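Hello K.,

You asked for the raw outputs rather than the summary table, so here they are, unedited. I folded two proteins back to back in the same session to keep the settings identical. This is the first:
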Amino acid sequence: MESPVAIVTAASAGIGAACARELARRGRRVSLLARGPAVLELARELGGLGTQGSVASADDLQRLVGATLAAWGRIDAVVCNAGHPAKGDLLDVPDAAWHEGLDLLFLSAVRLARLVTPVMERQGGGAFVNVSSFAAEEPSQPRPVSSALRAALGSFTKLHADRYAAAGIRMNAVLPGWVETHEVPVGERARIPMGRAADPAEIARVVAFLLSSEASYVTGASLRVDGGLLRGS
């Protein structure tokens, strides 16, 4: 049998690149999207397909899915990863920043699901993982756009999981805590029970598990990968 195919967005660095490497290591063919040319180099390294574009662009997502199907004729898994939206005080964030965040964090997942779900239905199944944030459950005042829209992403994840479970299509989300790809704010490291931020590879291994047959009965979940940072239920 041919190796399964996985799409990973925002894949040139950080969590996205770690997911691409982990999925390739597990034998998946990877189709990668990111804005910069580094994604093309990573795709070559992994023997995959690279597309330059933004996860916030509907046209770029269409190109990504089209190129993947043209190359391999199927899509078995999607990792919807994205960058970081604007920060600011809650009521000082302008409308434009909210709209940009909507495209980046929420509509990216909706649009990819709209494009890929019919493909998975024809194939008899597949799996999505949306890379979210602990801010979806514990809103952060300096990050109102991320907090609000990642919470919305959690709701979409559950809605899609309910709607398409009978078709063998699963959708879950991972909620990373602080990750070493970005500077951890002063005082935040001390709040983490494990005493450190995550390596991106640790997030990637959880993503790969949720995409695998080992997680075949897991759908609609938002799984914290935060070193124990959030203590609420």
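The second followed immediately with the same parameters:
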Amino acid sequence: MFFKQLATRESSLSYFFGCAGKRKSVAVDVLAGDEQWFVDAARDADVPISFVIDTHVHADHYSGGRALADRVGAPYCLHASNRGVVQFDFEPVHDGQVLDVGNVKVTVLHTPGHTLDSVCLLVSDARRSDAPWFVVTGDTLFVGAVGRPDLAGHEREMAGMIYDSLHKKLLSLPDEIEIYPGHQAGSACGAGLSGKPSSTIGFERRWNQALSLSRESFIADLTAVIPPRPNNMDAIVRTNLGQPV
């Protein structure tokens, strides 16, 4: 298995990983303008890009996912809840679906809360073990923080969804599972993010304060102080939905 993390603008983190032996790969959360980096990384690894996935419709940056998918002839994947919401064709993915990336298997976890369509990607490498190795957590779980709940409105309802997604989908994973989030310190998509670009479920379970709270305390804490909205958010969201700006 090969794995690359790209630190890019807006304190965002993108990912490219896959199976060199069976020549399959995945690009995750590509920013507009970074498409060539993924094309070059795929060329260097001598693999085609098999899937391009956005963990949700982003509000803080323009997505390059659809442009990359069109360029390399790969499916562009979003959670199925985006049917009838986005104004373009995409490959819908569902909770529990397993994507075949050669020896690498990617299990989709629907984790609504930051947005209704948020997903995390649980990854295993059969050449090492059938057990999961790491999870790409998008804007659901960060190092030292969790995603903000207000971008879609209904802050308390969405905060409750984040709590349920964290405790039912992510904190049920073994402590040794590595986490790779969608952002690091400086992002507008959460408060209190660490500058460290990875962690483990066990470390976050122990030291991420939000994860130790009761559901009601979590909701109250997450909605008490809402960070400023991302710059140009409305235009970014419309563009990422395929709507006219």
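The domain at 2-227 is CATH 3.60.15.10 (Metallo-beta-lactamase; Chain A).

Happy to rerun anything if the numbers look odd on your end.

Regards,
P.
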